């Protein structure tokens, strides 16, 4: 059997952690032939709860689970890690301004980036789930100068999957027949789910893109505000669907995207589509040989351009704010 892959999950005692860990241990993320060693990082007050989750993981007797460590020390939790899922973050509290939120998260993602830099395996791949995910990824990458920036990514796969499902419902086709959607920009309400290159049952989604009222007043806001709708319905934020998206993101990053299709991920911009270099921005991406590649050469219509620019402007404002706070 191959050597186990070390997978660190932060915020392991939280609700996404609980939905995520069992699936990683079952092989859903890295495939049925790859054993995993789980390394759970929590804050001291939540270590006991994480240990409870570790006990349950043990009780599943997963054949692929080679071991579990629980820690409140980032240096140990990231030691030798190959895949790091940064889920734990500071939520926005009552009366918290954006600057306060960015600063509080800088206090988490800066040191975690540094610990990854100093202790992780050479091939480490990082997915930031904790919000504000794009800018938290930017902060972590800035603290890991020895790790290629392209190894830091932010999760927009849940938005992508939500968009796939909305289109499948609207078109009355199975979700597997919807391809080539793209989420652009920030994982926030400004994100832009783009259907202009999408295919439904093998044909361009012209009928959907021609219906501008549905597109701009229903589809885009439904996808962008789905998180709030889930909170309203469930009384708690998305957890299983977020965990599933994290599994999908890492699975495709490591094992590749299907031929002829693409997905969406927040990756460090190299200036593609006019997005300023260095921003962690969601793009349409493919993955091969363990690397994300932005899908290039797509024609961007005026409607899309305006919506992409608005979300990118928000990312730039977040970067300016964290620069002013000395976090990057
Ligand atoms: P929970 O509050 O249930 O769990 C968060 C856990 O993180 C807690 O157990 C907490 O003790 C831990 N934590 C806090 N600071 C930590 C630190 N410095 N080191 C290690 N652990 C730490 O939140 P949950 O519902 O699991 O959501 C986690 C994050 O995912 C939130 O920031 C949330 O906003 C974000 N989300 C991101 C999504 C995305 O698509 N990118 C979608 C789902 C989700 O909203």
TrEMBL record:
One GO BP annotation is:
tricarboxylic acid cycle
Superkingdom as given in the UniProt entry: Bacteria
- Spell out the InterPro entries in the cross-references: L-lactate/malate_DH (IPR001557), Lactate/malate_DH_C (IPR022383), Lactate/malate_DH_N (IPR001236), Lactate_DH/Glyco_Ohase_4_C (IPR015955), Malate_DH_AS (IPR001252), Malate_DH_type2 (IPR010945), NAD(P)-bd_dom_sf (IPR036291)
Q: Does the keyword Oxidoreductase apply?
A: yes
Q: Name one GO molecular function term.
A: L-malate dehydrogenase (NAD+) activity
Which family does the entry's similarity section mention? Belongs to the LDH/MDH superfamily. MDH type 2 family.
Write down what this protein is called: Malate dehydrogenase
Q: Which organism is it from?
A: Isoptericola jiangsuensis
The gene behind this protein is mdh
């Amino acid at each position: 059997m191959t050597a186990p892959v070390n997978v660190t999950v932060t915020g392991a005692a939280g609700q996404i952690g609980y939905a995520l860990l069992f699936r990683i241990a079952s092989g859903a993320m890295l495939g049925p032939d790859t054993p995993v060693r789980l390394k759970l990082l929590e804050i001291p007050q939540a270590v006991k709860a994480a240990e409870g989750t570790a006990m349950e993981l043990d009780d599943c007797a997963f054949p692929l689970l080679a071991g579990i460590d629980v820690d409140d020390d980032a240096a140990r939790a990231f030691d030798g890690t190959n895949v790091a899922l940064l889920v734990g973050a500071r939520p926005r509290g009552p009366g918290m301004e954006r600057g306060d939120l960015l600063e509080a998260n800088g206090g988490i993602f800066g040191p975690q980036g540094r610990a990854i830099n100093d202790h992780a395996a050479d091939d480490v791949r990082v997915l930031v789930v904790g919000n504000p995910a794009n800018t938290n990824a930017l902060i972590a990458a800035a603290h890991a100068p020895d790790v290629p920036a392209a190894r830091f990514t932010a999760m927009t796969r849940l938005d992508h999957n939500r968009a796939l499902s909305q289109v499948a419902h609207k078109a009355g086709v199975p979700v597997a027949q919807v391809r080539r959607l793209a989420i652009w920009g920030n994982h926030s309400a400004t994100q832009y789910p783009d259907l202009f290159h999408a295919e439904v049952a093998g044909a361009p989604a012209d009928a959907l893109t021609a219906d501008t009222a549905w597109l701009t007043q229903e589809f885009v806001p439904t996808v962008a505000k789905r998180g709030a709708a889930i909170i309203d319905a469930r009384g708690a934020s998305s957890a299983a669907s977020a965990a599933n998206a994290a599994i999908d993101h890492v699975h495709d990053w490591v094992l590749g995207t299907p031929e002829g299709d693409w997905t969406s991920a927040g990756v460090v911009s190299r200036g593609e589509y006019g997005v300023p270099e260095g921003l962690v921005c969601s793009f349409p991406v493919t993955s091969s040989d363990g690397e994300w590649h932005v899908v290039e050469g797509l024609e961007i219509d005026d409607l899309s351009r305006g919506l992409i620019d608005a979300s990118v402007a928000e990312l730039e404002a977040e970067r300016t704010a964290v620069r002013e706070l000395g976090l990057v």
